[in-house]
Amino acid sequence: MTSVIAMLDPRAARYRVECLKLGKTYPPDVAALREVSLAAAAGELVFITGPSGAGKSTLLKLIGRRELPDQGVVMLDGRDPARCKGAELQALRRRIGVAYQDFKLLPRLSAAANVALALEVAYRPGDFIRRRVGELLTRLELTGKEQRPAADLSLGEQQRLAIARAAANHPDLLLADEPTGNLDAAAGRLVLELFRELAAGGTTIIAATHDEKLYGGGEHRILHLDAGILTEDPHVRAA
Ligand code: ADP
Predict the structure, then answer these.
(1) I want to staple 107 with a disulfide (CB 3.0 to 4.6 A). Which of 31, 48, 120, 151 is the partner?
(2) Measuring from each residue's beta carbon to the nearest atom of ligand 1, which residues come in under 6 Å?
């Protein structure tokens, strides 16, 4: 199938994530997103800012196919995830890392086991898993907490753990919802450094955030969402 967006924009083939005129209304009549279009290339770091209730989480849910749009289309590497089922959908999900706003950690499992699980389900070999878990927990300053149950960690530690888990498989796409909501400035910088390194390695990152310290400086793109309307993204030509 030819991408709708590729027909509208010949540059679209290079975009890993494309959203065209996404609309989402929650019952009874909450218009969470209105005609939202954006595109992000492989290795791009994009921040979505905007007030609470602006639609940021909803946009991430549609891109990650945790919800389906009422209008418009999402394309991931030129394919519409809404049309993927079964094994194809599972394969697509394995290429997406998600750092949820409420973490969704397994509370009784240790910090290390929470990250390792993400690698085990991707059939990574044991020594690779040990190395990658150690590397991520060290750089997110969770050293010494490896064997503690996730539920015993502070909120800031749980948040960093959720980011480590989302990043573990070097995903093609990383979606992060308020990734520094519980972090101080120093921990926020660790997260930003990790995002930059992942992006340099080809991971496309879309992060929803209020945190000006996170999106404030640097080369990345910043888009603004307010009342479901995204400030125009110059990467997508108006259709
Ligand atoms: P943000 O992440 O920017 O805070 P959200 O995407 O969470 O915004 O929410 C956008 C709007 O949609 C808000 O008005 C919110 O109350 C509403 N909303 C979000 N999820 C649901 C839901 N499952 N059911 C009904 N309304 C929802």
Answers:
(1) 151
(2) 26, 30, 32, 50, 52-58, 208
